[in-house]
Design goal:
Layout lengths: L9 E6 L3 H4 E11 L3 H8 L3 E2 L4 E5 L2 E5 L2 E2 L16 E4 L2 H11 L4 E11 L2 E11 L2 H27 L2
Antiparallel strand pairs: 1-8, 2-7, 2-9, 3-6, 4-5, 5-7, 8-9
């Protein structure tokens, strides 16, 4: 019998790929999310989009805004609206910490990914600061230089082996 792995199985359901390009990611949090049944089924089918979404703290509660979860194709009249605001489930201490941080200039909460952990859908949030255009250009330039350096090292090793 195979031994169980120590790490619980985590499966990504939706990823916000442009977030790392557009923001400096400062701190990450894990949050639960309050969903309806048809939303859960739609997310498990991979029909969620986090691209333009963000989170806000309002009246002591965290909310995810502009997260598009497509309507469930086999749903009935009880289907959910695709762009409704969804409550995030965080501890009071975390909400208080995030309230203070998001009131600082230029900091926002960005959902990075929706994933399945122990049969529950979770959201990974990041406290982020927007990058300026020159920061994005510098990051792109650095990636290109690193890639060319790695290729040169690889070619050098291939020739001299």
């Amino acid at each position: 019998m195979a031994a169980k792995s120590a790490k619980p199985e985590v499966r990504n359901l939706a990823v916000n790929r442009p977030a790392g390009h557009l923001y400096h990611l400062l701190d990450k949090f894990e949050a639960g999310i309050e969903l309806t049944g048809t939303e859960v089924k739609s997310i498990r089918e991979g029909k969620a989009n986090l691209k333009d979404s963000y989170a806000v703290i309002r009246h002591g509660e965290a909310w995810m805004v502009d997260c598009h979860i497509s309507t469930y194709r086999a749903g009935s009249y009880l289907n959910h609206p695709p762009l409704r605001e969804r409550r995030l489930l965080l501890r009071r201490v975390e909400i208080n910490k995030l309230t203070g941080k998001t009131q600082e200039k230029g900091l926002t909460l960005i959902p990075l990914r929706l994933y399945l952990k122990k049969n529950r859908i979770k959201v990974e949030l990041a406290l982020a600061k927007g990058k300026k255009i020159y920061d994005r250009r510098e990051a792109s330039r650095r990636r290109t230089i690193d890639r060319e350096t790695e290729q040169a090292i690889h070619e050098h090793r291939r020739r001299h082996s």
